[in-house]
Amino acid sequence: MRRSDYLIKRAAFAIITVFVAITINFFLFRVLPGDAVRNLSRVPRASNELVNALKEQFGLDEPLWQQYVIYLNQLLHGNMGISFSNQQPVSENLKEALANTIPMAATGTVVAIIIGVSTGVFSAWRRGSKLDQVSTNAAIAFYSFPTQWLALVILIYLSPWFPSHGMSDPFLIDPTPWEHFVDVARHMFLPSLTFALTLYGEYTLIVRSAMLETLGEDYVLTARAKGLPQRRIVTRHAFRNALLPTTTLIALSLGYIVAGAILIETVFSWPGIGNAVYQAVTERDYPMLQGAFLVLTISVVFFNFIADVLYFKLDPRITE
Amino acid sequence: MGMRTDVTDDIGEELKRPAPHRGRRNWFWRVISESTQAKVGLGVLLFFIAIALLAPWIMPYDPRTSVGEPYEPPSWEHPLGLDDGGVDMVSLLIQGGRVSLVVGFAATLVAVLIGGGIGIIAGYFGGWSDSLLMRITDYFLVIPDLPLAIVVAAVWGPSLSHLIFVIALLLWTTTARIVRAQVKSVRERVYVRRAGSLGASDLRIVFRHVLPQIGPLLAANVVLTVAVAIFDETALTFLGLGDPTAITWGSIITFAFLRTAISAGAWWAVIPAGLCVAFVIMGCFWLGQAIEDALNPRLKVSYLSTRSFRVLKPAAPEDG
């Protein structure tokens, strides 16, 4: 198989997955009883014009399969309907929420990967030592803590020192860009810390077991026999090969990142997409819920595709 | 892989050859007796299961009756204090564990039945059923779990049985993949083919010859699935998608969040419930991991290890 073939195949898989998700999304909200669930135009307190406009846009008087085609077409134009709770377009709401989520979740994830990779490599290298036992069991513990619970515990013990609610201080009037940045960064500290702690355990365990696999390979024995220093064997020989399964598994853990975002943003009232999901569930705001599900799925599929490309770069053998 | 174990027998004097196969029914006790990790894991699980079974006899107070002031701190009478309604926390935890474990095991049972069935059909019969089923599994594997569960549960309405099915819907994919891969490899072994040519029916081959072979791996998968199911129960309940009247570990954490336990500083209303969840998950993890490790002889070899192998002993780990 040629290089381009592989990438095309993965891209096709990504697109079909998104398509499957859209289809699930469409039928889930329409086959089940309950008019409010099914009908995108039942925005509470909406004017007649809005209801009629939505009915026409989404063809709500047409048969189901035709509605499906219209729905796909509207999605392609970025139209996800109108939010029940604030009567704004769902896509606008989600765009804003996503922009708030990304810096917080990305900081937490990057910190988690750095801690996870270093403790994982170290644990595998000094396998069976006291430090390995402590580090591995700590990783299992953090992996086991329910995310929302960890967030609450952090809230109890660290909220006197850091802002625990929202994304910026509403009483900060006319801040300079620098002041605003510091304010947001301080608000970001607790949610990002929770994020890093809930994710790092899994990464440690993944990296550790991938490293244990490669440390048992013959080329590691050869490298030792050549008299290479241990540090070089670990970084150049074992770790490089352990990166392969690690990328795949980190890509598969993207679902955890999304789950983490939902739970953590709920606890800290971070105005991101996770909090939007929580609000949509409590307020029965179905168009928002549908939209958020799609956006989250598309981001996971997108990053999975990136991981596939990366994997390909790391391991040219894959085409054989 | 077969080659590699031979090599290690030569160099690793302390690496004991596993005890000869004493019939396939013994594998579980062999894993338990050889691994401390497995013993601890099984012990923790049995402890929580015993408490759940004995709940009616050991619960000190009724988990639905008020016995004091809201958020009364821990005392001799109430070692973990009272919750916002003045209910004894120990009784709440015991009752909550009961329901959480039932949800966890029931969801796992459903997930393993679906995943196992799909895995067996795909792996055993191969061909178009294999590619179709594995395609579907692939898509489900990528679509993020929690958002999908939220969407399904939000549309379906909150109840305990819905929760069980929603969690099962998320968890069957891993089982399906593992079972399919195993069935595919076992099916090609000589004794299975021989049984086929002797006229054994497909059903007989699957249940008598294939399933017992994949038993250990399936057991590890089941144990790890229970952990994820219990984790998911707390998350979905936290988002308001569980049964609002049931007492579970998830609902205890949720009520602490919603009813200002945090600002009241009532750590006893939050922390114990999360620790119970974490201990059950850790127990599952230790047990599951021990079974998986026992199945993967390759992990016993580490050419950089400083402990297990005599041939490597002289080299002290160097830091340079």
Give a short synopsis of this structure.
Chain A is mainly alpha-helical and 320 residues long.
Layout of helices and strands:
The complex is a heterodimer of chains A (320) and B (320).
Chain A lengths: L2 H29 L3 H4 L9 H10 L6 H13 L13 H36 L4 H15 L2 H12 L18 H39 L2 H8 L4 H23 L1 H15 L4 H10 L3 H29 L6
Chain B lengths: L1 H10 L15 H8 L1 H23 L30 H37 L1 H16 L2 H12 L3 H28 L2 H8 L4 H37 L10 H10 L12 H25 L25
Describe the protein's architecture and organization.
The complex is a heterodimer of chains A (320) and B (320). Chain A is mainly alpha-helical. In chain A, 76% of the residues lie in helices and 0% in strands. Chain A is built from 13 helices and no strands. Chain A has helices spanning 3-31, 35-38, 48-57, 64-76, 90-125, 130-144, 147-158, 177-215, 218-225, 230-252, 254-268, 273-282, 286-314. In chain A, 41% of the residues are buried. The model of chain A has no long low-confidence stretch (mean pLDDT 83). Chain B is mostly helical and 320 residues long. Chain B is 67% helix and 0% strand. Chain B has eleven helices and no strands. The two termini of chain B are 33 Å apart. Residues 1-14 and 306-320 of chain B have low confidence and may be disordered. Chains A and B meet through helix 1, helix 6, helix 7, helix 8 and helix 9 of A and helix 5, helix 6, helix 9, helix 10 and helix 11 of B.
The number of E-state strands of chain B comes to: 0
DSSP helix count of chain B? 11
Quick check: average pLDDT of chain B?
A: 80
Biggest sheet statistics of chain A? none
Please state roughly what percent of the residues of chain B sit in beta strands, choosing from under 5%, 5-15%, 15-25%, 25-35%, 35-45% or over 45%.
Answer: under 5%
N-to-C span of chain B: 33 Å
Please, how many helices of chain A?
A: 13
- Which structural class best describes the helix and strand composition of chain B? mainly alpha
Gyration radius over CA of chain A: 24 Å
Number of strands of chain A: 0
Strand content of chain A: under 5%
Name the pair of protein chains with the most residues at their interface, and give those residue counts: A-B, 73 and 61 residues
**C-alpha geometry of chain B:** elongated
What's the quaternary structure here? heterodimer
